[in-house]
Amino acid sequence: MKRLVVVGTGPRLYREFMLRSIGERYDVHLVIGRPAEWETPYVRGVSVVPGMAADGIVAAVRDVVARDAADGVMTWAEDHVVGTALAAAAVGLPGPGPDAARACRDKHLTRSALAARGVPQPQSELVADVAEARAVAEKFGYPVVVKPRAGVASQAVALVRDGEELADHFASAHRLPAAGLRSPDRFVMIEEYLTGPEIAVDSVVRDGRVLPVFVSHKEMGYAPYFEETGHWTRGDDPLLGDPEITRFLAQVHAAIRYATGATHTELKLTDEGPKLIEINGRLGGDLLSYLCDSASGVDPGLALAAVSCGDAPDLTRTRALCAGIRFAYPPWHETRVEGIAFDESALPPEAGLAVPLVRPGEVVLLPHKDLMEGRVAFATAAAGTRAELSAALDRALAALRCTWSPA
Question: 186 exposed, middle or buried (CB, 10 Å; 0-12, 13-18, 19+)?
Answer without folding.
Answer: middle
